User: Fold these one by one.
Assistant:
Number 1:
Amino acid sequence: MKKSLLDYTLKVRVPVILFVALASFIATYYLSRAEREGVGYAPEQPIAFSHRLHAGTMRIDCKYCHAGVTVSPQAGIPAVSVCMNCHAVARKNRPEIIKLTKYFEEGIALPWKRVHRVPDYAYFNHSAHVNRNIDCVHCHGKVETMDVVEQVSQFTMNACLDCHRNAPTRLAGIPNIKRGPENCGSCHR
Ligand code: HEC
Ligand code: HEC
Ligand code: HEC
Ligand code: HEC
Ligand code: HEC
């Protein structure tokens, strides 16, 4: 190989190849992160429902719509009839509300896309946490500022255990907070 060609290879091609490899690794890492950990997942929903507007600006209580949080494992997504308590009159002529009313009149459940999920073989219970005064914000972030709900924290086993072990410091503002369970059978029943 001629010296100038070798120089060119070492000084230009090798760094360029390394740079491209590194850049594509980083890009793949971040782009696939949503699927790997769920963090950042924010699917577009069939109706442009905004938590910022309803739970933020209008201050509707989370429990008005997610009535399961204190009584069951599931928080629950409200039926269209709950929306119609207001939207039978409020903003009736807006395109999104016309769509909403159609679902209601045809008796079709809204196909909301699920954002957060732990696998079936792991047991999670909202009421066990919420009734101990652990607020939604500790696990879901500031939903009342989101136009589109986005997953902001991981729900991996490590993430659950990390809070369980460190609850007294992580949840220091909550009086008499105990550690959560670490034995396998609590979450794998
Ligand atoms: C007026 C009704 C209403 C109120 C009030 C409301 N939500 Fe929701 N929430 C919904 C609906 C409808 C969905 C499903 C569509 C979506 O994801 O935006 C939802 C979805 C969610 C999800 C994602 C569920 C999933 O699929 O994983 C979370 C988390 C959530 N809400 C938390 C909250 C919190 C926290 C509050 C209070 C600060 C709140 N919501 C107030 C109606 C409501
Ligand atoms: C307590 C009353 C109330 C409930 C319950 C409620 N909304 Fe609303 N919603 C309103 C009001 C009032 C507005 C208009 C707010 C504004 O524009 O300042 C609104 C605005 C909206 C808009 C925006 C409409 C536009 O201007 O384009 C959508 C979409 C919407 N709501 C969907 C829903 C859905 C879906 C549900 C049920 C999960 C729901 N709302 C439950 C009161 C309510
Ligand atoms: C200790 C963490 C934690 C707290 C606190 C918490 N959530 Fe959740 N939430 C989760 C996890 C984990 C999932 C996924 C559960 C599953 O797949 O079974 C979830 C799922 C949801 C869902 C969709 C599935 C369902 O259960 O209906 C909604 C809606 C929701 N949360 C709303 C809320 C609201 C509202 C609050 C506060 C009143 C709240 N969450 C408090 C961890 C939490
Ligand atoms: C923000 C902190 C936090 C996170 C995140 C969290 N937990 Fe907990 N969890 C607690 C605390 C604190 C307790 C103990 C409450 C008590 O008994 O005082 C608890 C209790 C429990 C219990 C016992 C419930 C019962 O019936 O007594 C189970 C099961 C559980 N958590 C599962 C999970 C799973 C699964 C996840 C992850 C998807 C999770 N937790 C995430 C704080 C958390
Ligand atoms: C606080 C709740 C909690 C406790 C305690 C817990 N797990 Fe898990 N575990 C989970 C959750 C949530 C998942 C699913 C999310 C994930 O894959 O990280 C999981 C996933 C797993 C998986 C599947 C991992 C994979 O990559 O597919 C195994 C195996 C497992 N746990 C074993 C155990 C064993 C053994 C113990 C006791 C030493 C234990 N777990 C204690 C919550 C818990």
Note: The radius of gyration is 24 Å.
Number 2:
Amino acid sequence: MLNWLDQRTGIVSMTKDFLTEDVPGGASYWYAFGSATLFAMILQIATGIFLCFYYSPSSATAWESTKFLIEKVPAGHLVLSLHYWGASAMIAFMAMHLLQVLLWGAYKKPRELQWIVGVLLFIVTLVLGLTGYLLPWDLNALLASRVAINISGNAPILGPAVLNFLQDGSGIGTLTINRFFGIHVWLMPALLVGLVGMHLMIFRHNGPAGPPIDEAPKLKPGRFWPDQMFMDTVLSFAMFVIIVALAVFAPVPLDDKADPNNATFVPYPAWYFLALYALLDVVGNFPPAIVQVATLFATIIGPTLLIVLLVILPFVDRNPSRRLSRRPWVLGVTAAVMAGAIALSFVGQSNVVNQQLAHNLIGPNAPAALAVTGNGSVQTGPNGTASTESSNTGSSPATTGSGATTYTNNCAGCHGATGTGTASVAPPLAGNDVVLGDPKKVITIVKNGLSGHITVKGQDWNGQMPAWKGTLSDKQIGDVITYIRNAWGNKASTVTQAQVTAVK
Ligand code: HEC
């Protein structure tokens, strides 16, 4: 059978060649990080495909489908947690793999291209982590991603175009989820698999680099099979056990549904972005005159320079020696960057914790918000209150709560997230005399819709405002009118459900 197969595909002799490859200087656990990363990638693809069957990318369904997956789908919470921790593992092992190659000078001639493909793989994986973070569409997903999207929006030249691609007039919403989803499940995985193929192909061509010494290794070479393969398997399996243990004992939490108006929730970034997050905080305290330049430097220019430096490293570092003692510059800079990143990550972590404490989100006074607990059940706040009402403890009830949510979900698309209106679509509601005037008139407009010429703040509008009485309940209409009469600097009386019901 194998002969038959080999004659037609060459697959058996290829595998044999591959497995009997010499490993200069003997097999080593140092080399196993790359294989473990590959294994983590396969795990991510397998769990990711499963998640795709249940996930529904839109602002009205993303959180709901994630919640359904967690609560109702057999093993759904487990697979989601495997995917979540698997991502961390993949990035951690990839970072160790990169560090090992860096320390051992394995990027040097003739392995420059393999190194560059590796750097690209690292970037692709970080983009995967970033885009995946938004998809559950809970408070943390939205608010943490908003930081990232604002950063990319500040990029010189490309910023506005990126922003335009990632969100519509009303801010981060379904459009953003769809873009992130496309990037996360199609674009980046395709690039990832293609680049990994290239990475392995070039590896096959050059063979392993061996230990960081300049003369040929004295130890007799080990074999890829079974020596290195055994170590690769041991490390990958250890990683898998850790991922499973984390998924079982620390399943991924789901916060309240995303709400752009929530001003009290403190988002926590993924650990691999903590350093960047802290840097953003640090430069935010710089004198106002330079804060903008400093932010640009910290978030865009700095990281870009770091990547460029990694890419050109094999061409800049032309020192042929791979001995650690003969490469003080590369090792010194690496150590400095690593120390900085680790220190900043700790700063970022403590910033997040302090802000959460300040907002009473954790600790004894924390509101009983929706939280997924260890055993996988979901607990709702007192009386099943709407998400934003329990977490927005800081501000007046009129400008938060279900009215804000109703506004975001139904009105912001036309009237703008902050009530400023959208040019040639819908008039502003902030500072609008009709909105602030007779409540009966506002109720009539929202219930029955409005068309024809109107003048708002000196500007002429002639559009079509939909009727909401079939879509929203009288309570929701009352809440949303109370909201638009008291948000964005507006101040007018609240509107009750009874008032809404009284108007036909
Ligand atoms: C499809 C876009 C769209 C959506 C969604 C929408 N509106 Fe409007 N709205 C309009 C347009 C257009 C007008 C102006 C109508 C006109 O020119 O006669 C308007 C007018 C209004 C006015 C009257 C303003 C004035 O000065 O007379 C109010 C109040 C209002 N909208 C509230 C809401 C609320 C509350 C919601 C959400 C429940 C909402 N709108 C959702 C498009 C929209």
Note: Residues 367-397 have pLDDT under 50 and may be disordered.
